[in-house]
Amino acid sequence: MLKDACAGLPEKYRTCGLCCFRQIALPKGGVWNLIGEDKLPEKISSWTTAIEIAKAFKNGVPPEGQGYQGVILYVHPKPEDVIVNLSKLYQEPAFTDVLEQNKASISGYHEGVGLYANSQIEVVLEIATVTQQDIYSIGGHSSEFEQLVDIAAEEIYGTAATARQREELLLKSEQVRSQSGPCWLRPEATQRVLDRLKPEVEQLRKIKRQQESG
Q: How much is the pTM?
């Protein structure tokens, strides 16, 4: 429906020359499809040209213990991939004026368009599949801050670290407390993780193929 509605828009609203990002939370099966099979089916979906928006989407890295792996994908869309560049549309006064004039008849206006407007810098893309090559970042969780301090204290002072030494280290480290907990890995760190996984993934793929054929 959206694709048909946007098909007649001028070309400038159906192109995007920037890299687009999309955050997704994958269950175990989705993780295997993306990393093990190197092919995750996609669909018509919203992306953003701002990496910080992708990182913060749905409160960022999925919580631990819920069975989901956070992944940020990135693509350089081809012209035929772009259904509509909503960010460009929102820059047109004529478009926003029509939205305002018709908001009473737009279903979910106040929870959607009226609430977010152009804050998500959205581009709607139609991508058939994404692969491991399209992974920009993997979400992870570091140890709790105090646990990290305990580990650091042992590294610095040895196993005989005193409570006072630990407390002094804790005070000195307060400025980096915000860096513990959930975080998105930098692209280069993400690539190192994927590279380390390759031998194990290849072995698991062989086992899976053997089971399927036998």
A: 0.81
The letter for the amino acid at 75 is V
The Cα–Cα gap between 147 and 54 comes to 29
Residue pair 22/134 in contact by the 8 Å Cβ criterion:
no
Of 72, 94, 82, 49, residue with least CA distance to 183 = 72
Encode the chain (214 residues) as per-residue pLDDT tens digits: 899 999 999 999 999 999 999 999 999 899 999 999 999 999 999 999 999 999 999 999 999 889 899 999 999 999 999 999 999 999 999 999 999 999 999 988 988 888 889 999 999 999 999 999 999 999 987 655 565 556 667 767 777 778 887 777 667 666 545 555 789 999 999 999 999 888 888 888 888 888 778 6
Tell me if 130 sits within 8 A of 40, measured CB to CB. yes
